[in-house]
Amino acid sequence: MDKNRIYIPVILLLLTLSAACIPEKPKREVTNAVMQEIYEEIKTPFKYGLVMVPPDNSLKMDCPSIFRKDGKWYMTYLMYDGRGYETWLGESDDLLHWKEKGKIMSFSDTTDWDVNQKAGYIALQDYEWGGSYAWETYDDKYWMSYFGGDSRGYEAGVLSIGMAYTEKSPVEAHEWERLPNPVLTPKDEDASWWDNSTMYKNSVIRDENRETGHDFVMFYNARGDSINPARGAERIGMAVSDDMKNWKRFGKDPVINHHTGISGDAYIQRINDLWVMFYFGAFWKDGAFNRFAVSNDLIHWKDWEGDDLIRSSEDYDNRFAHKSFVVKHDGVVYHFYCAVNEKDQRGIAVATSKDLGESDMYFVTGNNEEE
Q1: Judging by beta carbons within 10 Å of its beta carbon (0-12, 13-18, 19+), is residue 159 exposed, middle or buried?
Q2: Quick check: 339 and 50 in contact, CB under 8 A?
Q3: Collapsing DSSP states into helix, strand and coil, what is residue 323?
Q4: Are 159 and 264 in contact (CB under 8 A)?
Q5: What is the pLDDT of residues 131-145, one digit of tens each?
Q6: Which of 17, 122, 342, 349 could pair with 65 as two cysteines, CB 3.0-4.6 Å apart?
Q7: CA torsion, points 245, 217, 231, 198, in degrees to nearest 10?
Q8: 108: alpha, beta or left, given left = phi > 0 and alpha = psi -120 to 50?
């Protein structure tokens, strides 16, 4: 008998048993010192200024999401025209100078549930800090999560969460396909006390280590309350899926909750062995501002208690400075955000970790000439 036929399986068995006996490396505790370490890594004290503005004052621009493909940068963003949100695409060579490419989710002019609102966000992006920022696929499709609704107006009516997808290139402006029905609504049987009125931004990542026991996790903010849902605060919670089409809530309580005002628009990055959630707050202290929280397991989050990452300080953002999307490239951190001035003009601005000068872009005046 060939002894190797006996020895090799035995060796493989011993190696497998040995690996199984190695204790899992404990997760790093998220201490105050760790929070300070993260803050020093992500802070962006230099405001470059506006990088995208609407062509006229009948439009408002909102909610940037940034990705990279074939050496170029792209931005999905929202445009509001009085009817509701549509989702657009922009392009840049350097993260500072952007041009419009066109719509990717438009008004439907049908009886669809999302006929008047389609606010889309990148799903399944490479979340590694300083990584590729590639928009990755699942089932040979690119995916966006979005909130939609059939009421006209600014975030009007009952809003629910849907999923959109395309098999075409995400860098070309074209209409994305959408699942026929929302995947989460405030009227679902499993809606909780905090998300039973209306729903807003959503952000989907892969849960590669199945911390939640599922393949995909969504962070979303919603308004609700156990007594008066329509007057409740906005809070951030979680949902999970294994196929990007069927979603269920994860837990009954939010993971970020300031009990009043707004906590919303979560965006997740992986910095070394920790998860960082960029999000904005509003009205639980003055104004609107960008914050962060940190987790070692995607489920339990420690809130930063120090200075805001972004807050109002300039003429172009002196009403609100909020809604983060943060990337690190070539050693520089770029913190994109929605800038709103006292005239309620709304555009996309960026702050950086290194002084890159100042933008020469301005909001337009009433006659559409630059201020």
Answers
A1: buried
A2: yes
A3: strand
A4: no
A5: 999 999 999 999 999
A6: 122
A7: -20
A8: alpha
